[in-house]
Design a protein that fits this description.
Layout (H helix, E strand, L loop, with lengths): L13 E6 L4 E7 L1 H6 L5 E5 L7 E4 L2 E3 L4 E7 L3 H7 L9 E6 L10 E7 L2 H14 L3 E8 L8 H5 L4 E6 L6 E2 L2 H10 L6 E5 L2 H14 L2 E5 L15 E4 L2 E4 H4 L2 E3 L5 H8 L3 H16 L3 E2 L2 E2 L1
Parallel strand pairs: 8-9, 8-12, 9-10, 10-11, 12-13
Antiparallel strand pairs: 1-2, 2-6, 3-4, 3-7, 5-6, 13-16, 14-15, 17-18
Helix pairs in contact: 5-6
Length: about 300
């Protein structure tokens, strides 16, 4: 069993771990230097063990006094599933950050914040920053089922009003986040800007909708990042006809300038390899190669 050595210099201890849904977990991690520097929109690169995969994760919150950062992670691939097996008190090998450009925060007046699935976790610090800047926030959070429509209470704390949608109608309004967003745009609240984070098809749909109304819209493309430094080129995206990298030029971009079709096609390039890696992780777990919460 691989166990992180608890050296004094290793600060990345898991302070707490809380399940938000069947596959979504909130982690509070000891990382005082990152906690002091992070801003809304920043992310970290996390590596569970020596030789492990490096994955980018958005910083949801931080506590400077406690020296901790908060990450909310959905276990959908090999590394995030391995992370889910770790326990409170164990150490993560590397947490590098804060990285990326802070989200552009302005006083727009009235703002709609749209979150889909675990994207709501990435939206939460942005909504807080927008509220602090004097904006009135209308939030729409969605998920395929009630289980995946997360952080409703937390979003209520920084929003004038929160709407919940689920694809299957198990909670809130049955339908898509764009159904509720259209009602807000058609209403009298006067939406001047939209911030949207979620699956690529959702962000594309939000962009297509707000473009019809001429409402400034920002989307976060952290979902396509890999290396987090611009070296791998995996997060290339065409924005306004120019090539950008989500990790160093973003992760937020003007939604109406993003070529979503190209990005979604490129994002499927390694889907077969990802399935193989995920399958191996599942097989290892079933074979009891995972012991004590960390991979052998």
């Amino acid at each position: 069993m691989f166990i992180n050595e608890q050296r004094e210099k290793n600060l990345f201890r898991i302070i707490s771990k809380e399940a938000l849904a069947s596959t979504i977990t909130r982690y509070v991690i000891e990382a005082p230097f990152i906690a002091r520097k992070r801003k809304a929109g920043n992310f970290v690169i996390l590596r569970i063990m020596q030789g492990g995969e490096r994955i980018p994760l958005t910083i949801v919150d931080s506590d400077v006094a406690a020296g901790t950062i908060t990450l909310i992670v959905q276990a959908i691939g090999k590394t995030t599933k391995l992370l889910a097996t770790m326990r409170e008190g164990e150490f993560i090998q590397d947490v590098l950050g804060p990285l990326g450009n802070p989200t552009p925060i302005e006083n727009h007046g009235v703002v709609a914040c749209i979150g889909g699935g675990v994207g709501t976790a990435e939206l939460l610090p942005i909504a807080k920053a927008l509220q602090s800047a004097g904006n009135t926030i209308y939030s729409v959070i969605g998920g395929r089922t009630r289980d995946l429509a997360i952080l409703e209470d937390e979003m209520k704390e920084c929003s004038h009003q929160v709407f919940v949608t689920t694809d299957d109608g198990s909670y809130g309004r049955k339908g898509l986040v764009t159904d509720q967003l259209k009602d807000l745009l058609d209403g009298y609240v006067g939406i001047n800007a939209v911030y949207a984070i979620g699956p690529l098809p959702m962000m594309k749909a939000v962009s297509n909708l707000t473009k019809q109304y001429g409402v400034h819209t920002l989307v976060s493309l952290n979902a396509i990042m890999v290396d987090g430094t611009g070296m791998c080129g995996g997060c290339r995206v065409s924005v306004g006809g120019q090539m950008k990298f989500a990790c160093v030029d973003g992760p937020e971009f003007d939604a109406h300038q993003v070529d979503f079709d190209e990005m979604m096609m490129r994002n499927r390039t390694y889907i077969d390899m990802e399935k193989i890696s995920d399958h191996r992780c599942t097989v290892y777990a079933q074979a009891d190669v995972l012991e004590g919460g960390v991979a052998r």
